Amino acid sequence: MKFAVLSGLILACLVGVNNAEANANDLASFHKDKGDGCKTCHQTPGKVADDSENYINTQCKSCHGDYAALKNPKLKIDPHDSHLGDINCTSCHKGHEQSKVYCNECHSFDLKIPFNDAKKKEAWDAKWDQQKIQQAIAKGPVESTDVVIIGAGSAGYNAAIAAKQAGAKVILVEKAPFSGGNSMLAAGGMNAVGTPQQKAHHVEDKVEWFVEDTMKGGRYANDPKLVEILAEQSAAGVKWLESLGVNMDDLKRSGGARVDRTHRPADGRSAGPTIIQALRKAADKYGVETRLNSRAEKLVVNDDHQIVGVVVHGKHSGYYMLSAKSVVLTTGGYGYNKEMIAYYRPTFKGMTSSNNITATGDGINMAKEIGASMTDIDWIQAHPTIGVDSRILISETVRGVGAIMVNAKGQRFISELATRDRASDAILKQPGKFAWLVFDNQLYKKAKMVRGYDHLGMLKTADTIDGLAKLTGMDSKLLASTIGDYNQYQKTGDDKAFHRQDMPLNVTQPPYYAVKVAPGIHHTMGGVAIDTKAEVLDLQSWPIKGLYAAGEVTGGVHGYNRLGGNAIADTVVFGKIAGENAAANALKK
Ligand code: MEZ
Asked: So what EC number does this one have (predicted)?
């Protein structure tokens, strides 16, 4: 009886919601039909919200609860329990227009959202309107601050917190409705040398080794002065992240590194989301003003070619100029800008990308417009192991922990720990231009991130090697002999076939797993030229006064090929340097 009443109630609610939903045109009219006035969402009805839509989001949460409350354990894929973290509800749920599931941009989930068939409006950020930019400049600044930081990924947050700690007034602008950029997608970790973590794991390492590995990986095209700073300040960078609430106690090896120096969260979670969550909180705590839905569109310089401000295009506030003595570009690379990829590397045209949809090279283009110099702008990295049929990166950590890589027939073809450029080239020469990462239950238990791939349905699983071969279409005998040989190499510590340096695990314990991978755009090594103070250089190699940059928007740190774990290191070390110097410049008398 009780069950009947309860199920009747649930049904009535569902029917009620469905009817209301069927009658309503969009989320706003749905609320209105339920008797909620405009004030439910809007502080002052008729008046535009702040660009970040903070008020609306507080209202959403006050009625529906926060993300923890919205988690639904019955769902296999729960969009309210994702690596995006505690982002704004309005990132996906739109009041007066078509709602949008951001997860579908990278995953092949095809998740549905209420009102995804509402009227589609032209996106507020569809255009860069030069006339409006010029009008904003002619009108002059509507607001003044010490430092503007453009782009809220790891570099942006680190710069913002460092500048704020140095005493500057900081505004951090981000074009997306959520923060995190590419950093939020980073699976691996942060390279650092001389840390207590390396000591605890008995890893001997040296600053010179870090420098040498990075230079070798970058084919010696890197700026050695920048690489030295990266290595020298990496341990302090890990300490700084820890001071902001990030745990980096696990240690793994990435391709091209001679020892384990990639620091990762000890709970096995992906590094990027963990770091971004902590940085978001720290930025709030230190009073950084973060403006979402706010795209910087023009750097403004005076007649002496010094930075005086930025034109920002806000979702609700339109075009306005912010005056600032210092501006820091932390806009990331151009790994999701198809035109720029095709222009700079025609052979990569149409290749899949692991990048966030925000990585469109805006900072590079803005800096170019005011005469910034570019370094290695055409060097683009393909990561060898992007999941086929999605844009999900299968972290290098999986190979670092012990997975082997085989081709469509089941044969190894390169050391799994080769640098990314070599591994990607090798995969593209295999039949079908893809590969399988193969591992066993030992690795499944050790590399916790693998459970995430399993959860996403990316793994093939079988209790025998033969079964795995059947599932994946590999040749059973070849796969068995590849694994047999590898296990022998692992036992003797001598990879006679491909000279893999580190073989922590054999492949002997069922169940066995395979994940299909292929190369995809991962990192754009080139970008604005910077000096050791993270000042942006002009075409004569002089600093453009007041302009700083850090992270993937810059060139020079990684040469022609970035090593795994060096991106987060770059964003932390140079983000902090850029923030500190931007603050010092803005505050000097
Ligand atoms: O730094 C990276 O890009 C990295 C470690 C990626 C990965 O494979 O996890």
From this structure: 1.3.2.4
